[in-house]
């Protein structure tokens, strides 16, 4: 309930600010990142999921959901704004509010310079097989009550040059999917702006790994944000069990959570 209230409040702030600044301006919500967010070159309304094969260059237009895609809350099972076929690329896109379930990668994919102004259910979900390779380069996301990047399939996700602010988890390896995999995530040159709960959640019992370098955290003087949290995942749909949490000041375990204190800078 409180998450949805928070989401509605934030969506209202975005809408009011947009009226005052004009549709071409990028609105910063509470806890906005220090990254330079782009200005939208126009607005495109999607009433149904847009399928992408090959490359879609959005020219930094703002895409917003309407009709069946018109929700920006945390309800499960929403349709995505975009589905990317195996090998597809989505680039130079601003996803506004409401954002539904963001982007779904059905196989290997590239997401480049994509910005989520107010994350809906999730920003992006990765669904490929065990050999899939996903790349998220540049861009950023803010206003995520829960997850930003959701990894339901297998393979390796590499995230670089990405900014995240006002979020729950930046990345989560699915803790209770009916089909489970050994998953890997690599985060390089990530800018994190508080508030937030954790950067990564992985399932140590399935052999997941998370590797970090060049993480900068802004506005977290109490060092409350966990860098890496391990869970005991399952394939029954039950809530996964938390095993351990590693902070930036201590480093990881070197096995599943691969980072040292030197990989994390606080500002």
TrEMBL record:
Instruction: Report which reactions are catalysed by this protein.
Output: Eliminative cleavage of (1->4)-alpha-D-galacturonan to give oligosaccharides with 4-deoxy-alpha-D-galact-4-enuronosyl groups at their non-reducing ends
Cite the SUPFAM superfamilies for this sequence: Pectin lyase-like
Q: Which UniProt keywords apply?
A: Calcium, Lyase, Secreted, Signal
Instruction: State the superkingdom.
Output: Bacteria
Q: Which cofactor does it need?
A: Ca(2+)
Q: Which residues form the signal peptide?
A: 1-34
GO terms classed as biological process:
pectin catabolic process
Q: Name one GO cellular component term.
A: extracellular region
State the EC number(s).
4.2.2.2
Q: Name one GO molecular function term.
A: pectate lyase activity
> Which residue ranges traverse the bilayer?
none
Main site of residence? secreted
The subcellular location is: Secreted
Asked if the Swiss-Prot or TrEMBL record annotates the protein with the keyword Disulfide bond, the reply is no
Similarity comment text for this entry: Belongs to the polysaccharide lyase 3 family.
Q: PANTHER family, per this entry? A: PECTATE LYASE F-RELATED
Role noted for this protein = Catalyzes the depolymerization of both polygalacturonate and pectins of methyl esterification degree from 22 to 89%, with an endo mode of action. In contrast to the majority of pectate lyases, displays high activity on highly methylated pectins.
Q: What is this protein called?
A: Pectate lyase
Source species of the chain: Actinoplanes xinjiangensis
The organism's taxonomy opens as: Bacteria, Bacillati, Actinomycetota, Actinomycetes, Micromonosporales
